[in-house]
Amino acid sequence: MIFNRSTLVATAALAYGVSFGTAFAPSRSVSTQLSRANVDFIQQQSQSRPYSSTQLQMAGPAQVDLTGKVAFVAGVADSSGYGWAIARALASAGATIIVGTWPPVLKIFESGLRKGSFDDDSILPDGSKMVIEKVYPLDAVFDTPDDVPPEIKDNKRYAGLAGYTIEEVAKAVEADYGKIDILVHSLANGPEVTKPLLETSRKGYLAASSASAYSAVSLLQKFGPIMNEGGNMLSLTYIASEKVIPGYGGGMSSAKAQLESDTRTLAYEAGRKWGVRVNTVSAGPLKSRAASAIGKEPGQKTFIEYAIDYSKANAPLAQDLYNEDVGNSALFLCSGLSRTVTGVTLYVDNGLHAMGMALDSESMSDRNV
Q1: Annotated catalytic residue within 51, 205, 238, 306
Q2: Is residue 62 situated within a structural domain?
Q3: Average pLDDT rounded to a whole number, residues 142-152
């Protein structure tokens, strides 16, 4: 039950095809009723202000055009997760897509691309296929080459690879593309995620924070200088950052809380330093390959299956959540439509975050909701 449709339901333009003209300007019937006195008053008020009003061209339906923009998506290794969906949504608007992939799965991913294993999931609204221009090996646990320990350098899964630290990848991207416009952090890992927090070791806790939270800070540190003004950074978080989600352990809930807090601080710092916006999407549960790997007891469903069933039973919108839902929301946040939006956590979870009571609880069994 992988919630991953092969095609987008609609183009990005349709997804956000609201008419700004009708939202911000009076309709023709209303405008013809304005008296000359009202018009004169408005003109006098405008002339008397010590500042000029901001004028935005908002005629016709909103369009998303990312042609000429370069997007680096960190954390793509297959077509089942949110990183892929975000890349596809950005590609549908014309962006050039480059990705960073964890070295141990790099060869498998590149082989899948060559064999066409992901072709069905690459279809764009116009019938063409998303093209990933380049795949960089990326291990976001390491900031510089000096951080890589001998056991990693000598590991057979890293054999023949070099330049996979964040600093090195940023330099390689700069050499290949100059500046980029969009930076996506789709990375999370907690080696002790199946353990309750009370049983989590210091090493496991810090590893979760390093891979899932500090990696976003480091990415922006290294990529910020090569981002164009008006660029965007986007990460992915989860409701466990603020609510108790049993089964999502090992310090991962803490790491997501750090990520959201850092999003606000980075929005301020990167906004003032480079004119870059920073946001995060709190996505609902999706049965991706990575999520399916979170522990399963014999004879029981996986953690993500429980989370999906719970969401359907209790969220305001009792519907499936697809990875493209997050992709479309990411497209909005990475486009000019959200040019004044920064430092936010956007919930894309069918509204589950708003609920304070479980509708399928035994205590609610006699109530027809």
Answers
A1: 238
A2: no
A3: 96
